[in-house]
Task: structure prediction
Amino acid sequence: MRIAELLEKRRQGWIELERMCDSFRSAKYPFANKGSQVSRFSALYRAACTDLAMAEQYQLPPTTVEYLHRLVGRAHSQLYRSRQSGPARWIRYVSMIAPQSIFRDPCVKVAFVVFFGLFTLSAMLAWNEVRFPGFAERMLGAEQIKKMEESFDKPLERNFDQYVMMAGFYIKHNTSIGLQCFALGPLILPSLCALAYNAVVLGASFGYMARSDVDAGDVFFQFVTAHGVFELTAIALSAASGLRLGVGLFSTGGLRRLESFRLNAERALPIILASVVLFFLAAFTEGFISPSPLPYFFKACVAMLSSGLLMYYFVVLGYPRPDIERELANNEDNPWRTIGVDRATR
Amino acid sequence: MNPQNSIDLTAVITTPENIQFEYRIAGPFRRLPSFLLDFAIRMMCVITFYIIAFLVGGTALLPVGMILFLIMLVAFAFDWFYGLFFESYWNGQTPGKWLTQIRVISVDGRPINAYQATVRNFLRLADFAPMVSFEAFVTDAPPAYAVPTFLVALICMTLSPRFQRLGDLAAGTMVVVNERSWVPSNVKLEDPRVASLSEHIPPNFRMSSTLAKAIALYAERRSRISVGRRTELASHLARPLLKQFNFLADTSPDLLLCALYYREFVSKEAFSDAKRFAPPIASASMSRIAEIGPVATQEPALTPTPESLPPFLNHRL
Result:
C-alpha cells in the first residue's frame, strides 16, 4: 500500500473521531447510556493511537504526525476524564482522613500555640492595668479603643435585615482573609505575621474589655461569646495551612523541593477547607445569634456546644488509633500515606 | 519532558495504550487572554446579578437585607470558587479556557481532579503578588485599587520546564493547548512532468528520514509560496541532488523536489501489508475445491506460502 492511499483510507476515521470529540466536549457524562458510542469511540481512538505509533515506520509526512499528536491528545482527555467521586469517598474524606491529617500535623500545633499563646499573653497584659499600664492603649491605639467602646455602648438590638446583611459581610470578609492567609503561605512571613497580629490585637481587645472599670465590657462579651470559638479556631487553622505550604518549601524530608511543595499542598488542603467551613459557621453565628438580645446563658450554651463539636471533630475523630492508621496507610486520598506506612508497620 | 525535544514546548505523555504523544504547552501569552476572558465573564455575571437584585430588591419579594446577603455571597463565590467549579466539572476547562482552547491536565497526562482544581485556584492570589497600589504613582488615588503584577507567576513560569505557575506546581498540573488542527490532505501534484521525472531518479537512491520530512514539509507548503521563492528555497536542497543524479543543471529545483515527494509518498510501496500473505482461508479452500473437485486429496498447508496459492490471490494487494 502507498502512503497516499493509507492516508486516504484512515482520514475518514480521524475525521469521525474529531467529530465525536467535539460533541462530547462539554457534556458531564459523555458516555452515559451510549454503549455503542463508547466502543466506537475507543476503537477509533485505538486506531489513531496505532497510526501515531506506526508514523515513524510508515514515514508519514510531519504535518500528519503533528495532526495525529493533537487528535490523540484530544481524544485522550475525553476518554480518560476526571473521576466522578461518589459520596462514599467524600464522607470518608470528611469524617476520617481530614481530622486525622489535621490532628497529626505539627504546623497546626505550632499555629495553635503561637495564636492562643500570644492571645492569652496579650489579654493578660491588657487586663492588668496596675502592673502593665498603657499596654492596651499602645497595642490598639486610643482612637480604636474609643471607637470600640462606643460601638458596644448601647445594648444589642438589630432587625432581621441587618442580621442577614452582616452574615453576608462576615462570610465575604473573614473567609477571604483566611484564604489569603493560605495563598500567601509559600511566602511564610505574611501568614505568620497575620497570625501574630490577629492574636495580639484580639487578645488586647479581650483583655481591655474584661477590665472591671470598662462599662462596654458586658455588651462586648454578650456579642463575642457565641461565635468566638469558631472564629478563633478558624483564624489559627488558616494560618496553619499557610504555614504548612511554606514549610514544605524548605523542610523537604528527602524529597525533591518541587515534589515536597506539591505533597505539602495536599496536606494543607484539609486544614484550609476546615477553616473555610468554620469561617462560614462563625459568620452565621455572628450574624444571627451574637447581635440578638437573647439571654447570655443561651449564647454561652452555643459557645459550649460549638467547642464540644470542634473537640469531637478534631480530637475524637482525629486522634490516631492503630486500626484507623492501618486502614489509611494505603489510601490514595490520605496526604500522609507515605509516613503512615512506616508507622503502621512499626 | 523528552530530552531530545527539550527546546520545544511539548510534554510527552505515555497513554495506557503504550503510545507516546505530545501536548503543546500553553505559555503566558496564551494564558493571559483566557484569564482576562474569565475575569470579564465573572464581572459580567456579578454585575448582571446586581442589576437583577436591585430590580427585585425594591419589591416585597425579597427584603433588602436578604438582597445584600446574596450579593455578598455571590461576589465571594465568584471570587474564590469560579475556577474550581468549572475546572473540576468541565474536565479542566473554564469558559475562558474553552474559548482560547487550552485545558488544565495533570503533569502525568491524566485529567485533573477536584483536589487539584482547589489547590491551583486557591493559590491564585500568591501568583498575583506583589499587588501594587495606584497610590505609589498618583498620590491622590484611592487606596482600594490594588493591581496585581503577576510577577510571582511570571518568574515561576520562566523557571519551570512546563510553564507552570505557583498554583500549578503545588497541584501538579500544567496547561496545554487543546485545539483541533486542520485535517491533513494529500498534496495535489497536477504537473505531469513530476511523475515522469520521478521515473528517472536512480532506483538505488534512498532518502534519509530527515530529508523525507523536509521534502514533505516543502511539498505541503509550496502552493502558498510564489514561484520565484519556490526556486530559491528548493535550490538549496536540489542542487547537490541534481549533481548526484547526473541531471541537467537547468532542471527546475521545484520540480525535482516534487518528483522526490511523488516517489517517496505517492508512488512508492512504503511498507508491506502484513495481511498480504494471509488471505482468507475460506476463500482459498473454496477455490481449491472448485478447481480440484469434490474430493480434496491434497493436505492443505497450515501457513500457505505464496507459491501454494492461486496467482490471483497473490496480486490482490
